[in-house]
Every structure is written in C-alpha cells, then in structure tokens.
Write a structure and sequence with these properties.
The complex is a heterodimer. By secondary structure, chain A is an alpha/beta fold. Helices cover 32% and strands 15% of the residues of chain A. Chain A has an eight-stranded mixed sheet with strand order 10-9-8-5-4-3-1-11, with helices on one face. A five-stranded mixed sheet of chain A has the order 14-13-12-15-16. In chain A, strands 2-6-7 form a three-stranded antiparallel sheet, covered by helices on one side. The chains are: A alpha/beta, B mainly beta.
Chain lengths: 521, 73
C-alpha cells in the first residue's frame, strides 16, 4: 500500500431535505443488490437450496433478497440515503440530475442523517416483518462518507439487532475501511467493478479523487483498479462476503467483462452481477448524451451465460434506487418519508418478526417440494429443447398476478435439466384503464419477445389474442401455483405436443430491456 | 483570492466539505459555501484546491474574483 494517510472523515453535515441531490448511478446501487440465478450451476438463491454454494455462504445469503432470487420473493430490503458524496466520476452517472419522477439507481428523494436513517429502519422493520436487510448504497459512495455510513450501522445495530447490514461501494476507499466493516459485522459488500484494464477504464471513468489528488485518464483507472483488487482481496482475507456488480456497456467493456469475471473470481468474490447500462439521453449522462446504447436482453443473457461457467451469476438485480424500500421490485419508499416516520408509532417487536419469518420458511419448503415432484415427473424425458417462459408474480414464489397488473415479468429458462431463473423484464403497466393500452401491450410483447409463453393468474381476451398473434402462449391454468413447478409442467406438455406433431418448435427473437429502475407501481 | 461555490451548480453532496484543510466550507440551506476569510486556495497544504478536485460538477468550485489572490505568509 502506498501511504497510510487516513482519509478525511466527513464532519456531520446537514439533514435538510435535498430535492436537488438526485444523483444517478447506474451500477453502484443495491447496498448489496446482489443475488443469483437459479437452478443448475449458479443458484445461491433460486434453487431454494444451497446449490453449489459453500454451506457457510448459503447460511449467510439465504434470507438476503439481494443475493437470492428465491429469497427475493419472501424478504425485503431497504436502502438509506446517508451517503451523498462520491469520490469518482462515471460516464453512466449524472451528478446533477434533478427531475421529479426519477427512478434509477443512485437517485433519492431525500438525504438522511444517520439518526433519521436509523429511525427509518426501525419504523420500516416494525411495519414490514419481511424486511431483513439494510444497505447503504449512496446516492454517492458509502465509503466516501465513512462517518455517516458507520454511524448509521452503529445506531441500527443497537436498535434492531436482527437486521443484516451491507454496503455498496466503487472500491476506491475500500482498503482503508475493511477493518471497520469487519468490526461492524457487515455481512456483505458489493463492489462495482467495470474493468480490470485502465485502457478500458479510461472510457468509463473520466476521473477519480484519491489522497487529495484528482487523477484523470488512464491514471485514474489505474488507481481505481488497484484499489478495487486490493479491497476485494482484503475482504476475502477477512471472510466478508463480496459480490461484484458490473455495468455492461456494449462496445466498451462487454467482451472485457469475461476477464473481469475471472479476476474477481480468483480474488474470492462469491457472486457476479452483470447489469445492463442505463443510458437514456434525458438522464443527461455522458453515455446518454453521446448515444452509447445499452445491451439487448439476448446480449445480456449471452454474457451472463458465458460467465456462468466460471462462477455464480446474479440475474435478478433490479437496479433499484438508493432509498428503495420493499419487496421484489416494489418500492414503498414514499410511505416512509422523514415527515411520516416522525408521526409513526414505532414498536420493534423481535418476537413477531421471528414468527413471521418462520412461517415464510414453511412456505419456502412447500415450494421446493412442489418443484421436486415436477422434476421427478420429467425425469424420463430427454430433449435438447430449451424455452424461456415469462411469469407474472407478486412474490411468494407463485404465479399470482394478473397479466395487466404486472410491472415486471420474471423469466425462467426451462429444459429437462430444470427451471432456472434467468432474469426479469420491467414493463409499463398494461392495464391502466383505457388509454394507450395497445401501445403498452406492444412494449410488453417487446419485453418478453424471447419467451414462448407467459404464465399468469388471469388475462383478458384482447391481450390473449394479441400475444398469440405474436407467438407467445398466454397460460392461466397454473394460476396461484408455484412458479418452478408450473414452468416445468408447461415444458413437459410442450414437449409432448412437439413429439406428437401437434406443434412445431420455433426459435424466438430478441427482447428489449426497459430502461430504468423500479418505481412505486 | 479565495474560492467560492457557484450556488446554482452545487448539488449539496458534501464531497468538498471534509476535504478543506481550513474548515472554510459550511452548509447553508442544504448546499455548501466557502468562507472567503478562511480560504487559502489550499496553498501550503496541497497542490490543487481540494474543493475543486473533489467536486463532481465542473466549474462549481471556482476562483472568487471579488477577493485578491491569497498570498502565503
């Protein structure tokens, strides 16, 4: 390590509501917005079992919604926006962004002091028993605001000892704080690593601010990558779980991310989350303004599949806001503004939280049993066929949402090998009562255009016909049943129909990734 | 001379505040400002003004022409 100067610690600054501080950060969100894919190889979560994860790691991540798609159905997380400052500039981030319906990573509605944040955590956890995880993810960088970040952890641990803590960082300051992270018992750290080669990095990071100096160009990325690798190695040495987030930027780092994947795996990261670039021009980012496009659904999946052989891949990241509150893509942050929290009676009932979580565990067990039974039924079948199916769900691992009410579809890949969660597609609500429904239906079809079927609790006659015309089979006969079991049952029927000559299997086209993170539906 | 923070540009992110060697930066209504009497342009401390080096927005921490250049004693 170069020198041992302790980075300056932020002196407590204000607590005022700052509507102007809307910072867009593509990859840096998630306070541990981690996770996994399902089945097969990469399955820290979705297989509802340990998959191929070390049992010790599985124990740590199984109830963590950001690390496991399966847990994401049952448990919730929240982020508190206590860390506004950042120490690097990314070309996918606009620090001046200021627009009221903002809904992407890094964007927050109000900045909190550690005291306000702790109160918010306790209030939310009292109201939502499935809230098990607190993450600090910005809107700047958690470790560029170390005093605020660790003060928040200290206060939360005191009042809500069962909440898991995690943080998300760009890694520049990480080596200086690994000991503190360990001392505060932080469960997971997420580092956003978009490159391990400064030549690639100089096209992503215009500058970094490190040890009182602003580095530019290739030097900036050299400093950054060295610090990121050192930080990751230190986390591994201290046995702190580390997930790596990467933003996939076509033409800049898409090929290179395979190398990043190898580098972070070698240094002990347990999960890799490759996310699509968000670059709408109206966000005002360098990439957005310069026409840099994000990847398509197929490009993203192909890269994730390539890296999957190397290590566990996360595919359920929803790139949520730095002040998100809630479960599975829902955002309840608007219910918990500072003003409202001050009015809320807060009773932190550890016992009722525990009881709720025990009930959730029984439900999860039932889901696994159902899937196992369906796998046994499929055991005699052999086929190279693979299908993607979209699912409308409100959580709980079931097909329990009306087609028109879905703001996202989960995508499962089914084959004789099993049902594997491979991603989710955000859509605009189709059913908004009248206007613009046809256009909205088109966007839904584009978002799930690579799927052979969509499994829903219910669907109207008109969208049913339109989906059929587009070659997507609308299926409501598995309403309120478990997802994997139903997806496998659908696949078994499909195989039967292909074999009997009733239908001919056709390949599907690509699908579009809807820009932007989740907002309250 | 001292540095100033252009109010319309400041996002209130606080990145500059802890970096100032003179404790010249303070919060005002959610944004940040520099006390010109305390600012030394970082002369004697660092090679470059720290507020400008840390600020995420270009041309936000700038020289304030209303004051003469700072001269080290």
């Amino acid at each position: 390590m170069a020198d041992l100067v302790q980075p300056a610690i932020a002196r407590g600054s204000g607590s005022k509501l700052l509507s102007r501080i809307k910072i867009e950060v593509n990859g840096r969100t998630g306070g541990g917005c981690g996770a996994s894919s399902a089945g097969g190889k990469a399955s820290c979560g979705s297989a509802a079992g340990a998959g191929d994860l070390d049992p010790e790691i599985w124990e740590k991540v199984k109830n963590h919604p950001c690390y496991s798609e399966e847990a994401h159905h049952h448990y919730a997380r929240m982020h508190v926006a206590v860390a506004p400052a950042c120490n690097i500039q990314c070309n996918y981030c606009n620090r001046k962004y200021d627009c009221s319906n903002e809904s992407r990573p890094g964007v927050v509605s109000e900045r909190l002091t550690p005291e306000q944040a702790a109160r918010k955590v306790v209030a939310v956890a009292s109201e939502i028993p499935q809230m098990t995880v607190l993450g600090i993810a910005g809107p700047g960088d958690s470790l560029a605001n170390p005093e605020k970040t660790f003060k928040t952890f200290e206060l939360v641990t005191r009042q809500a000892p069962d909440i898991k803590l995690c943080l998300s960082t760009n890694g520049l300051a990480l080596p200086d704080y690994v000991k503190q992270i360990k001392d505060f018992n932080v469960d997971h750290v997420t580092i956003t690593i978009n490159m391990v080669d400064p030549e690639v990095g100089e096209r992503i990071y215009p500058w970094v601010y490190f040890r009182h100096k602003r580095y530019r160009g290739r030097d900036a990325s050299k400093v950054l990558t060295e610090r990121q690798m050192e930080g990751l190695e230190l986390l591994t040495a201290h046995k702190i779980l580390c997930k790596v987030n990467s933003v996939m930027i076509p033409g800049i780092n898409d090929e290179h991310l395979v190398e990043v994947n190898r580098a972070v795996k070698a240094r002990g990261a347990f999960l890799h989350n490759i996310m699509p670039l968000i670059s709408e021009p109206e966000h005002g980012t360098y990439f957005g303004l310069n026409g840099q496009r994000g990847p398509t659904a197929q490009e993203l999946k192909a890269l994730q599949d390539r890296c999957e052989g190397e290590m566990n891949m996360m595919r359920h990241c929803r790139q949520c806001r730095a002040d998100a509150v809630g479960l599975l893509g829902e955002d309840r942050s608007a219910e918990f503004t500072t003003g409202r929290i001050e009015q809320m009676p807060v009773v932190y009932d550890l016992e009722s939280r525990r009881k709720y979580q025990q009930a959730v565990e029984r439900e999860r067990e039932a889901r696994i049993v159902a899937k196992r039974a369906e796998m046994e039924a499929l055991a005699g079948e052999f086929s190279d066929l693979k299908l993607l199916v979209a699912v409308a769900t409100k959580g709980g691992g079931k097909i329990n949402q009306h087609f028109g009410h879905a703001s996202e579809f989960q995508v499962y890949e089914v084959s004789t090998g099993g049902a594997r969660f491979v991603g989710h597609r955000r859509v605009d609500l189709y059913c908004q009562g009248g206007f613009g429904e046809e256009a909205a239906l088109d966007t839904v079809i584009r978002a799930i255009n690579d799927c052979h079927a969509v499994l829903v609790a219910k669907i109207g006659a008109c969208p049913r016909d339109e989906l059929k015309k587009a070659g997507i089979d609308p299926v409501d006969r598995y309403a309120h049943e478990f997802i994997e079991k139903s997806a496998l049952a659908y696949f078994r029927e499909y195989l039967g129909r292909v074999k009997s000559g009733e239908i001919v299997h056709l390949r599907r086209g690509d699908a579009q990734i809807r820009q932007g993170a989740f907002v309250a539906a | 001379m001292a540095f100033k923070i252009v109010e319309t540009q400041c996002t209130g992110c606080s990145a500059c505040e802890p970096q100032c060697p003179n404790n010249a930066i303070y919060e005002k209504d959610g944004l940040f400002a520099i006390n010109p009497k305390k600012c030394t342009e970082c002369i004697g401390f660092f090679d470059e003004p720290q507020c400008a080096a840390a600020c995420p927005i270009d041309d936000t921490c700038v020289v304030d022409d209303a004051y003469p250049r700072y001269v080290a004693n």
